[in-house]
């Protein structure tokens, strides 16, 4: 006859004892539940990745030999216009001269192009006010002018006057060679 004490804990294993079958069932159930949660959540997480056609437009390469000095081309990148401008020496000198001028979003000209490639300016061609497309050659500073609300940008794409709060954006880009640039 076994000795029993009224009110004693029926748990037969105390801390430090070997796990029994019930512990194994608890661990297996927790692992199965965790796997099920991950299995259910994965399709929702995976659908947030960009689709293949979006990834295909994530970057664009452009042949710079198509742009003569003093000209600008506009290409489409990620659904937005992208300005690629081959600046003249006079435009570069004017942009560097204006580095110390009062601006709403101060930035030096050398921070807006790649080192040693001051003639190539790559900008997202949407006004930072409400997203209109500014035109080159207008405005008070010889750069871009937004006809929608009158923002004036200089030849470096820096906002100088008007309601736009920021400079024209410079996207991530790199030179693949002296005549080819990759944006994005």
TrEMBL record:
Any idea of its EC number? Answer: 7.1.1.8
| The protein, known as | Ubiquinol-cytochrome c reductase iron-sulfur subunit
Report the sequence similarity comment from the record.
Belongs to the Rieske iron-sulfur protein family.
Cofactor binding, note field: Binds 1 [2Fe-2S] cluster per subunit.
Q: How does it sit in the membrane?
A: Single-pass membrane protein
Chief subcellular location: membrane
State its location(s).
Cell membrane
- Please give the catalytic activity noted in the UniProt record: a quinol + 2 Fe(III)-[cytochrome c](out) = a quinone + 2 Fe(II)-[cytochrome c](out) + 2 H(+)(out)
Q: Which organism is it from?
A: Phenylobacterium koreense
- Transmembrane stretches, by residue range? 24-45
Q: Which UniProt keywords apply?
A: 2Fe-2S, Cell membrane, Disulfide bond, Electron transport, Iron, Iron-sulfur, Membrane, Metal-binding, Translocase, Transmembrane, Transmembrane helix, Transport
Q: Which segments constitute the Rieske domain?
A: 89-182
Cofactors required: [2Fe-2S] cluster
What is known about what this protein does? Component of the ubiquinol-cytochrome c reductase complex (complex III or cytochrome b-c1 complex), which is a respiratory chain that generates an electrochemical potential coupled to ATP synthesis.
User: Region labeled Disordered — which residues?
Assistant: 1-20
**What EC class is this?**
translocase
Q: Which domain of life is it from?
A: Bacteria
Another remark in the UniProt entry says: The Rieske protein is a high potential 2Fe-2S protein.
């Amino acid at each position: 006859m076994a000795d029993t004490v009224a009110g004693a804990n029926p748990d037969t294993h105390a801390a430090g004892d070997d796990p029994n079958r019930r512990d194994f069932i608890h661990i297996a159930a927790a692992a199965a539940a965790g796997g099920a949660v991950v299995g259910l959540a994965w399709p929702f997480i995976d659908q947030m990745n960009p689709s293949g056609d979006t990834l295909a437009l994530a970057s664009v390469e452009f042949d710079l030999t198509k742009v003569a000095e003093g000209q600008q081309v506009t290409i489409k990148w990620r659904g937005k216009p992208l300005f690629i401008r081959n600046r003249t020496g006079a435009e570069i000198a004017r942009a560097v001269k204006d580095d110390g001028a009062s601006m709403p979003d101060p930035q030096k000209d050398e921070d807006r192009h790649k080192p040693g490639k001051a003639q190539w300016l790559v900008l997202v061609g949407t006004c930072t006010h409400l997203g209109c497309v500014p035109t080159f050659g207008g405005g008070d500073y010889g750069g871009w002018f937004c006809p929608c609300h009158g923002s004036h940008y200089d030849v470096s794409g820096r906002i100088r006057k008007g309601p736009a709060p920021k400079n024209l954006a410079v996207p991530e880009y790199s030179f693949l060679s002296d005549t080819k640039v990759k944006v994005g």
